[in-house]
Specification:
alpha/beta, 11-stranded mixed sheet
């Protein structure tokens, strides 16, 4: 049997910057031992070398990235203080954030070639922080999917096995990290789209507390669920990026005014590996062996044992309403999708079909939406439109919102007893491309352990949990914290990471 082709990042070497962590890179850049241009060019070279096989990037902005890196180097040479703790370290940006100097397509034919007249707040904060943006990464169309197979521009492949998915919807960002094409990346998480790809690619991904990272300029999928967040290859690198992008934004009406906890200090504190006095919840409803690939369950139980060996106390918690989370989520999300995607009508921007003078406005809209949207997007629009229709709103959408409140209450009760909750990130390791493509329900079930967080608006992290014994592919340990308790994730996540080292 032929071994799968693997393009993961190599062992750390002094002469290959694509193997370094962001924390290592920034220390050397700011001390001027190496330049941001050298580091950025090394990653651009890596993209040119292997992305033809992985398809992690939809757009590469080499000139813009080098120009941003040059500005950092020149400022440092002039004795100017770095604009952030990550100034000079390049990054990959999910193609759902608007950018004035690159297309924003959301991996959809509907927005093919579209250039936004404004930058998203996250984009602006990255630029202000002196972070060169290498390019825009592939994703499931409009962030709807769990495998990055729904991209109109072809699937992204997992660097651990090119025949398998890197997860979704943000598979491009995680694949770029895992393969050494970027040391940092940005994703979005509506039901697991940061954490799930992180688990399948052996990287770290964080879904921050809802409202703590601005959604201004993030093309909406489901507005009450969407949350941008950081991804990287280590917990500390992820914390450094989190600190850059988080904070109140007056342009986002849902933006929190709460002070962002010091997640970098928490990550550094956790690096000593000591978890004495930490109570870790284990969800009773997730203890179902039949739901897991055996190797994933084995790895998860081993991870729990490791937490105990580091001094954590495991506490079983009962979250009875989690049994209804999947059903509630897949009513609320399509309803918001139906509303948000109504703007793509062929009239104002993006694709337009039938504009030849022989079709009415209604016909142009219908032709445009039929040609511009892929099958999964159409499926969710139709589900949401039906659930919101007269006579069904109370039975479906309103009832799902009631379940959502009960799930939030389950979380609140749990955090009265524990500091964080531990769970598997996914029920299996990366599946083969095409394996679930014709079975939407099986694809939806893949997010079973991640989506309760989004319904409640709390925070979560996926940290590498070791390789599954029955597939030799990565697993993820999911850590969940209360709203505005993101620092707890970083402390426990860094400790767990140190314990695995």
């Amino acid at each position: 049997m032929t071994a799968p082709e693997r393009l993961t990042v190599g062992e750390r070497t002094d002469d290959d910057y694509t193997t370094w962590t962001a924390a290592e890179l920034v220390e050397k850049i700011h001390s001027r031992e190496i330049s941001s241009v050298e580091v950025t060019q090394a990653h651009l070279d890596r993209i040119g070398e292997i992305d033809g096989k992985i398809n992690a990037f939809l757009h590469v902005g080499a000139d813009e990235a080098i120009a941003a890196a040059t500005n950092v180097d020149e400022a440092l040479a002039a004795g100017v203080e770095p604009t952030s703790a990550l100034a000079g370290v390049p990054l990959a940006l999910k193609d759902v954030f608007t950018t004035t100097d690159a297309p924003t397509t959301c991996a959809s034919k509907m927005l093919e070639g579209y250039r936004s007249p404004y930058d998203a707040t996250v984009t602006m904060r990255l630029r202000a922080a002196g972070i060169p943006i290498l390019g825009k990464t592939n994703m499931d169309e409009f962030a709807m999917g769990s495998s990055t197979e729904n991209s109109a521009y072809g699937p992204t492949r997992n660097p651990w096995d090119l025949d398998r998915t890197p997860g979704g919807s943000g598979g491009g960002s995680s694949a770029a990290l895992a393969s050494g094409m970027a040391p940092l990346a940005i994703g979005t998480d509506t039901g697991g789209s940061i954490r799930q790809p992180a688990a399948l690619t052996n990287t770290v991904g964080v879904k921050p507390t809802y409202g703590t990272v601005s959604r201004y300029g993030l093309v909406a999928c489901a507005s009450s669920l969407d949350q941008g967040g950081p991804t990287a290859r280590t917990v500390l690198d992820t914390a450094l990026l989190h600190q850059v992008i988080a904070g109140h934004d007056a342009n986002d009406s849902t933006s929190s005014r709460r002070e962002i906890p010091d997640v970098v200090a928490a990550a550094r504190d956790g690096a000593n590996g000591d978890l004495k006095g930490t109570k870790v919840g284990v969800i009773k409803q997730f203890e179902r062996p039949e739901a897991f690939q055996p190797g994933v369950l084995e790895a998860y139980r081993s991870n729990l044992s490791q937490l105990e060996s580091q001094g954590a106390e495991l506490v079983e918690i009962d979250c009875p309403n989690f049994d209804h989370a999947l059903n509630a989520y897949y009513l609320i999300l399509p309803c918001e999708v139906s509303s948000n995607l109504a703007r793509f009508d062929g009239m104002r921007y993006g694709q337009r079909q039938g504009d030849d003078g022989t079709h009415s406005a209604d016909e142009v809209m219908s032709l445009t939406r039929a040609a511009g949207f892929g099958p999964e997007v159409k499926r969710r629009i139709m589900l949401g439109t039906y659930a919101l229709s007269v006579g069904y709103y109370d039975a479906y959408y309103l009832q799902a919102q009631r379940v959502r409140n009960l799930i939030a209450q389950d979380f609140a009760a749990a955090y009265d007893k524990v500091d964080v909750i531990a769970a598997p990130t996914t029920p299996s390791t990366a599946f083969k491309l095409g394996e679930k493509a014709e079975d939407p329900l099986a694809m939806y079930m893949f997010d079973l352990f991640t989506l309760p967080l989004n319904l409640a608006g709390v925070c979560g992290m996926s940290v590498p949990g070791g390789l599954a014994s029955d597939s030799n592919l990565p697993t993820g340990l999911q850590l969940m914290g209360p709203a505005h308790g993101d620092d707890r994730l970083y402390r426990v996540g860094a400790a767990f990471e140190a314990g695995r080292a």
